[in-house]
Design brief:
Helix content is 40%, strand content 17%. It is built from six helices and seven strands, in the order βαββαβαβαβααβ.
Length: 237
């Protein structure tokens, strides 16, 4: 079991990029972490429990939350980080694209969030964080991505709805809306072009995102916030 008083975070899409950065950031804060993704490897750290599974499958959500409770006894925060991003012209999206994006971005959020909130209600509080994209509020003709807007836009609306539904019960809900971040998802040769999308003239670093999530974690008066961490894109061009 975890140390008495130790907080527990569940992080989806935790094997690489932002997810792996979030695991590290929460461990630095002294939290126990339940990390899930399809391919995640075991951890040598006793305070990190890894669970393999496809978050688009409801059974994965059930296993992850059950494992968190069995190992650590509680869930204080859920970070819905798992996501698929595809940029294509609207008429080029296939049925498979639609199923994959909605499966991870929407279904992958829904069941695990229900289970986490149920547990938070028993504990008397908690925090749910969604990772979304600034393209929801600021579409860009250079990055056509209706499926991202459809799925992540839904998450941003749900973030506010959850915040209001549970505000009086000490459960907060927030989102971080990303610009383009240097992760394994973006090949090096695209970096220069991607940097130019941002008014500040650079791509984001993983630490830019993890710092934002930790800020929200430690901000008890902030709920229903969509925090853009996007190099100025939502402000304009």
């Amino acid at each position: 079991m975890s140390n008495v008083g130790q907080k527990v975070v569940v992080i989806t899409g935790a094997s690489q990029g932002i997810g792996a950065g979030l695991v590290e950031a929460y461990r630095k804060q002294g939290w126990a972490v339940v990390a899930t993704s399809r391919t995640i490897a075991d951890s040598q750290d006793d305070n990190i429990l890894t669970v393999q599974g496809d978050i688009a499958d409801r059974a994965t959500a059930e296993r992850v939350i059950a494992a968190a409770l069995e190992r650590f006894g509680r869930v204080d925060t859920l970070v819905n980080n798992a996501g698929i991003f595809l940029s294509k012209e609207f008429t080029d999206f296939t049925e498979a694209d639609y199923e994959a994006v909605l499966g991870v971005n929407v279904a992958g959020f829904f069941r695990i969030s229900q289970l986490a909130v149920e547990q938070m209600l028993k504990q008397g509080g908690g925090h749910v964080v969604q990772i979304t994209t600034s393209l929801v509020d600021h579409p860009n003709s250079d990055v056509p991505s209706v499926l991202a807007s459809l799925s992540k836009g839904g998450l941003q609306a749900a973030t506010k709805a959850l915040a209001i539904e549970y505000a009086s019960r000490n459960i907060r809900s927030n989102a971080v809306a990303l610009g383009t971040i240097k992760t394994p998802m973006h090949p090096e040769e695209h970096h220069e072009t991607l940097a130019e999308l941002h008014p500040v003239g650079r791509m984001g670093e993983i630490s830019d995102i993890t710092d934002a999530v930790i800020y929200l974690e430690n901000a008890p008066f902030v709920t229903g916030a969509i925090l853009p961490v996007d190099g100025g894109q939502t402000a304009g061009h």
